[in-house]
Amino acid sequence: MNYSIITYIIGWIFAFNALFLSIPCIVSIIYNEQSGFYFLFIAILCLLIGAILISRKPKSKVFYIREGFVTVSLSWIIISTFGALPFVLSGEIPSFIDAMFETISGFTTTGSSILTDIESLSHTALFWRSFTHWIGGMGVLVLILAILPLAGGYNMNLMRAESPGPSVSKLVPKIRNTAMILYGIYCFLTVTEVIFLLFGGMSLFDSLTHAFATAGTGGFSTKNTSFTDFSPYLQVIATIFMILFGLNFNVYFLFLIKKPIKALKFEEMRYYLGIITIVIIIITINISHMFSSLSDAIRHAAFQVAAIITTTGFSSIDFDKWPQLSKTLLLLLMLIGACAGSTGGGVKVSRIIILLKTLKKELYSYLHPRSIKKIQFEKKCVEHEVLRNINVFIMAYSAIFGLSLLLISFDNFDFTTHFTAIVTTINNIGPGFELIGPTNNFSIFSSFSKIVLMFDMLAGRLELFPILFLFLPATWKKHT
């Protein structure tokens, strides 16, 4: 283990966290709120720690995948811990466990909340909640790679450890340029959504915070009712941008370099949009009797399908009151998730496609034992290593899911509440059903259960393996 390079990069994490924490101070000045002092204090503390760690130059820049996993995991724990402190110091979320839950939920773009009255928070705190979504959506390490050439030829291991999906590839030869392109697209889409929200009459503050939450597919709103009380126009705009941020960003890159035909041939994108369309049609038919017009049924169905499959978690209505068929479809969408290479969570559409193709291949081999058939995805043969990684991912996912469900069952709520609590946290979605539905929150859980759910949020956002590496003794041994 190359501890010196890990310490060095974590130093930069502290420095960037100081920058992130200083931005809510501007909001505090605008709204004349004292809570900004606490953000400034923690920002200065992070800057001092960062300066000390950065001053110690790494002895070696060798950076293997385990250094990448450990660095990413520790970075997310650190930014969440220090990001929670202003909530505690200001007294807006006095419990440290609750503040950590809210902050981890923000950075991991989960959107699950322990707050019973969101609108009672200061503008500064509300801004920080949504801003953590934007930071966590693309990833803080990806931002650092876009600005600083940290680890020479080994920095792809950082991006692979933090970026969601079964495989991560370069858009251009240099990783730094790839990171810059990704953040450029991310910023462009965010600003575009802000403009459309402003055009619909939403205030600048609400436009920024909701655009941050949409971009990171997080779901924190500044309103207790999420998008319920916003106009149909604003709900439609949010629906469109949730779907856009759930797409693989490689699609946007291909459009950027004027290769639209190749972009439109993305297999995962076609399945993703196909699933959305089919489920919207089914749910619209299933809930049409609950609305006075078909257009309202389509709008709410489209909004909730987009919010759930992209793991954003906004709500335009209390979907927990929908018929069982619609709720079951939404539960299945929670498990599927968005596209690989997007800001969304979940298992990912690409993994589901490859698993189904693997199943088809195995069934075919029973009928034709001597046949040799390769699995293809995006017009490329899927390598055995990718298949193995996906199988191991599903095994790890199932193990964490089962253990977490067992641990939080000590709270003794109904099964649906417990089950969807795990589904929504490990897949970084936000609301579940029953006691944690869109009109409720996670404050009902014990501190122990909240810690379990926090672990699930981090594990889900980091695609399980980076966080699991922290528990392996072999991870911490020095390279021989």
Report on the structure:
This protein is mainly α. The chain contains 20 helices and two strands. The chain has helices at 3-30, 36-55, 65-90, 96-107, 123-138, 140-147, 156-162, 175-199, 204-215, 232-245, 249-256, 260-264, 267-287, 294-309, 324-336, 349-367, 384-408, 415-426, 447-461, 465-469; strands at residues 376-377, 380-381. It has a two-stranded antiparallel sheet with strand order 1-2. A hairpin with a 2-residue loop joins β1 (376-377) and β2. It is globular, with a radius of gyration of 22 Å. The termini are close together. The model has no long low-confidence stretch (mean pLDDT 88).
Can you lay out the helices and strands and say which pair or pack?
Blueprint: H1 3-30, H2 36-55, H3 65-90, H4 96-107, H5 123-138, H6 140-147, H7 156-162, H8 175-199, H9 204-215, H10 232-245, H11 249-256, H12 260-264, H13 267-287, H14 294-309, H15 324-336, H16 349-367, E1 376-377, E2 380-381, H17 384-408, H18 415-426, H19 447-461, H20 465-469
Antiparallel strand pairs: 1-2
Helix pairs in contact: 1-2, 1-3, 1-5, 2-3, 3-4, 3-7, 4-5, 4-19, 5-9, 6-8, 8-9, 8-10, 10-14, 13-14, 14-15, 17-18, 17-19, 18-19
